[in-house]
Amino acid sequence: MSLKSIRIVFLLCGCYDIALGVIFGLFYPAIYSWAGVAGPNHPGYVQLSAMYVAVFGIGFLFVYRDPLANRAIVPLGFLMKLGFCVVAFGHMIFGTIPSFYVPLAVLDLITLGIFAVAWRSIRRAGVKV
Question: What are the boundaries of each domain within the chain?
Fold first, then answer.
């Protein structure tokens, strides 16, 4: 994967995660209502998670700006996406996840593979990690 491709991937992922974090942070009551899901007993549970997603999106924009200088963010992003996939697919197995999370988990699963290829490409660029 070229550095140009890596930059495009992380630009898209950064914008996606920032948008997702902001949307869920501000509009989760409407999203939960639309999906027929009971909200948490305190808004902070969703808002804090949404903020973390947005912050990772900002980190991905750092990778977009300079993949080599910000390469340490890539494995953290991989772990973040992996964590969501494990939780989402784990709950999916038991039928305890709201359906609107499934497409998000599928996108993160795809992103995991892309991040792995990007990480390998950055390491092959001759930069010690």
Answer: 3-124
